[in-house]
Structures are given as C-alpha cells and as structure tokens.
Amino acid sequence: MVSAKKLKCSQCGKEYLPDMITFRCECNGSLDLIYDYKKVRKLILMADFIRERPWHWKYWMFYPVDDLTQAVSFEEGGTPLFLSKRIRKTVGLEVFFKYEGSNPTGSFKDRGSSIEITKAIELGANSVCCASTGNMGASVSAYSAKAGITCKVFVPEVTPSLKIAQILGCGAEVIRVEGNYADCLRLTEEANRRYDVYLVGDYPYRSEGQKSVGFEIVDQFYWNVPDYIICPMGNGTLTRAIWKSFLELQKVGLINELPKMVGIQAEGCHPIVDAFKYDYDKPIPIKKAHTIADAIACEDPVDGYGALHAILESGGFAETVTDNEIIAAQKLLGHSEGLYAEPSGAVSTAGLIKYKEKFEGKKVVSIVTGHGLKRAPVGDMPEVMTIKNDFDELDKIFP
Ligand SMILES: *Cc1c(COP(=O)(O)O)cnc(C)c1O
Ligand SMILES: [Zn+2]
Question: Which of 2, 183, 380, 387 has its CA 20 to 30 A from that of 299?
Fold first, then answer.
C-alpha cells in the first residue's frame, strides 16, 4: 500500500482497512480513503512533479494503488482546460471549460475506471459487475477488456442505444432492466450479497480516480485555484471527488485556497438540490427521473451526501436547469466554442449561464463531462440541403 491508511465512513465515522473489499459502510454511507499525507508529501518532493505534464497517473501518490507497473490505463485524463472565447463575452465572466469528452471512452468516468479496475485486479477479481446509465458501463467495459476480465453492465430501460453499442463494442455483457437507474443499483448490490460478485461503480476506489479532474485543474492553472467549479451531478461522485482533491492538495501544502463547488442537476431529477434548498442532511430520493440528461438521471444518488457536504463546506450552491436550458447550452458550447458535448455534459454550462450573476468578477471552471458522440442528438437540427452531383448546383450554395 503506497500511502493509503484506511477507509472511513463519511457519515458515521466507522473505519475499515484500506484493502478490504467493502463497497459501502454498514450504515450505507460512502467510504473515504484516508492517506498518510506526510508520506504523500514526501513522495511528491521525490518525484519530478512540477515538470511532468498534467495527466491522471501523475498524481499516483494520491491513489490507493500498490504497484504502478500493474496499472490498467489508456492514458486517461490530461484533458484540456480551455479559456472560453465567446461564451465568456456573453456572460461577462472569466470562464474555462475542462473538456472531459477527450477521455478515451468520451467521459471522465475513465479516470475512476483506471483506479477501480487496477484495484480489482490487485484484489484478485476476474469479473466485475456494475449498474450504469451508460457512460460508466462503456468505460468499465473498455478497461475490463484491457485487463482481460469479464464484465456485466446493468442499464435502465431509457439508456441511449449508442451507449449500449459502446458497452457491447468492448465486449461486456449488457443486461437491460425494466426499471430506472436506482433499480439497476439495487439489483447489482443484491448480486454482490448473493453471489459475491465484484462491484464497480460509485464506490471508494472510483471516487479516488475521479479526483484527478481537480488535480489537473490546479496544475493547469500553475498551482492556482479558481473561484468556482461547476459540475453536473448524478450520483454526486464527481463533485465530492473534486472537493476531496482540493482538500488533499491543501493538506500536502501545494495550495492555500479552496474553490467553491457548484452542483447542477436537471429539473427532472434533483435529489441533491432539494436537500440543499430545504436544509436536509441527505439527498431526497425521487421515484423516476425525467430528463434528456440521461447520464445524471440518478434517483437515489450514491454519493449525494458527499456532494451535498462538499457544496456546503466550500460555500458553493446547488441549482437546477431545465431540459431546454440544457439543449441551449449544448448548442452554445458547440457553436461558440467548438466543444461538442452530450446533454449531461452541457448541464454545468447551462447552470453557468442561468446563474451568471452569482459568479460576477470570478474565475470559473465549467466541467464539460461527456462527448457529444455519446448519444443521438436532441432538439431541432438545422435543415441539411441535398444537391445533385453537378457543378451547376454550386450556384445555389454560393449565390
Ligand atoms: C457520470 C456522469 C455525470 C455525473 O457524475 P456523478 O459522479 O454521477 O455525479 C455527468 N456527466 C456525464 C457525461 C457522466 O457520464
Ligand atoms: Zn457508516
């Protein structure tokens, strides 16, 4: 074990050994990995840390991985952070986009999968199983194929067919459940109890991998911290993990400040936003999500507690956007910045635009979480002109 000391429940505080195959606490709370941060600091000083380019495995000392030579990796992460060219002008803010669509399978899930599948191999698993709205499944399918293990993915009825194709394309078995994402989760967790299958998903190891979004942002700003980070929230793992990355960078003395975390959910699925608005300690689960942002349609968010407390601790806020606002933001990202995002990936930018007054004069990073090629387009498409294969037809186009 490099520098991970223990797993600790974020809700009741119960502790577990870092290498136990434990997906959640007995109390159902999410587990956090706690490190020996003095040791992490020493490892950073020993490595050629400052000169290495920002990419996922550069921050290996913050991961619970024993043997780096066994890492299952597609060189995920190292995604670009673009200063907005035009949206910045329309909203009057200093806006950056972290484009996670350029990860190997088209979403930030690859960061978590690299840690999770590396860990599964280290712990001796030869098959894994997960519940997914699509992107996690696609990612886990690819990493499992690379690691040479089998993989079963449970998806809800509404999963876009392109995402199912991507999962199947890397050889995983897809099980479509007549139900929603929360039902898929319940089924896989029951499979874990009944058949001892190795679960992957929004559990402690994945969350550790998702931290590299935060590490890279600070690194790309030459070890400066932005004022706000805006994330779409499904299970809330990304929001929680980015916040943890900043706390850890502070613990090892690489930064002094912390950003404010902003979590955005869809109007058709907002258990974490409700908890924030009504001062609840935990997300308020809903029966069935209705949104085009399929990757964040999580009715009972696994890491909702962690995301909520990240937002509260950081002094940020949580809000919702409508499907129409998401579609408008998706179009704006494409047309104004050349960034093609799936609807869920445009949710943070929809929040940025809708609540722009709250960010006045601040440096803001919007996480564009997934690639536009992930699903069939929604909303009105401009008409495409068809012409005969004839030079004279060109007059119609260049009058
Ligand atoms: C998984 C995912 C999210 C939501 O992340 P959580 O960690 O579940 O909150 C947002 N956007 C995309 C594209 C995703 O794949
Ligand atoms: Zn607990």
Answer: 380
The share of the chain scoring above pLDDT 70, in percent, equals 99
Query: Quick check: is 48 in a domain?
Result: no
Query: What CA–CA distances, in Å, run from 399 to 384, 392, 396?
Result: 17, 11, 6
What value does the mean pLDDT take over residues 78-100? Answer: 94
Residue 31 alpha carbon to ligand 2 centre in Å: 8
- Domain residues for the domain of 365 are 81-106+206-374
Nearest CA to ligand 1 atom 1: 295
Domain CATH for 242: 3.40.50.1100
Across-strand partners of 311? none
Average pLDDT in the chain: 95
How does pLDDT run across 123-147, given as a tens digit for each residue?
A: 999 999 999 999 999 999 999 999 9
Q: How many domains does the chain have?
A: 1
CA distances 360 to 90, 319, 326, Å, are 13, 17, 21
Domain annotation covers residue 114 = no
Cβ 237 under 6 angstroms from ligand 1: yes
pTM of the model: 0.97
Tokens of 63: 């991961």
